[in-house]
Amino acid sequence: MGNRASSDRRKSSEETCKSKSVQDLKSGGRDFGKSQSMVDLGRASKRKKNSISMGSDKSRPPTRNGSTVTRQKSIRRDIQHPIAASGREIIVQCFENPHSEFGNKTCQRIFEKRPDFQNYVFSLGKERAYQMTVKLKELVEEVVLRIDDVDTIASMCRSYGEDHVELKSAGFKPDFWVALADAITVEGVILDMANHQPADTVAAWSQLVTMMFSSVRDGYYTALRQHRMNSRRSNGMKRQTTNESTSSGDQCISPTSLLPDRPSPLIPGSMRMSTSLYGMENSMPKPTPIFE
């Protein structure tokens, strides 16, 4: 009985092993049915890698070219205001306080420190010096009113600089604008009345005057070049007219041209003149008398 039981167990174990081997052959027979070379295995691995890379490329978002990215960055920089929004708010709040003497106080600061500016003010006279302070106050008021519009600020400041070309004869110097920018910054900080941090207020006004006076200088030097070109043209026209007048004067006959080229030394000068005129008189036809 024991031998039969052991033999039955062996048969059952052999049958289970055969069934497992048959299942393995059915499932993996396609892969290992034929022997593959190293080249075939390499091709299969390349196909798998390509399929993986294609899948990863599809999963990635589409990227832009470097030129378009840099172009967008440059556009953003151009559109961006040179003064931060917080700084612009500080400047606007400063000018909400009374500032009727802003231009006068600003120019007074330069007047106390620079003798050349004093000479310039004296040469302008009382009325024109007062107009100078009024124009400065009005310029800063307009800039603060349109502080968000960079192009409008630039055009206003350029026209302000162009107006100073005619003041050059009175002793104006472009170097005055450096001191003027510093004085505007100081007066702007004083208008703040310590409502903000002093460092923030100074930074905001410094950025504003930098933006303003860069356009002021551009307008001044552009108008100065145009003025010099016009003066050169006018001088050239004057020279041309003077040359034409002198050339036309040379063509006129003078009495000295009637004298002989080489007078004889035996005849005095007065007699030479009389004899030459006498010869001309004899050669000319005599008019017939009207009344006899």
TrEMBL record:
Residues 1-33 have a biased composition (Basic and acidic residues). Residues 51-72, 232-257 have a biased composition (Polar residues). CDD domains: Mb-like. InterPro entries: Globin-like_sf, Globin/Proto, Mb-like_M. GO terms for molecular function: heme binding; oxygen binding. Residues 1-78, 229-266 are annotated as: Disordered. This is Glb-20. It comes from Pristionchus mayeri. The lineage of its organism: Eukaryota, Metazoa, Ecdysozoa, Nematoda, Chromadorea.
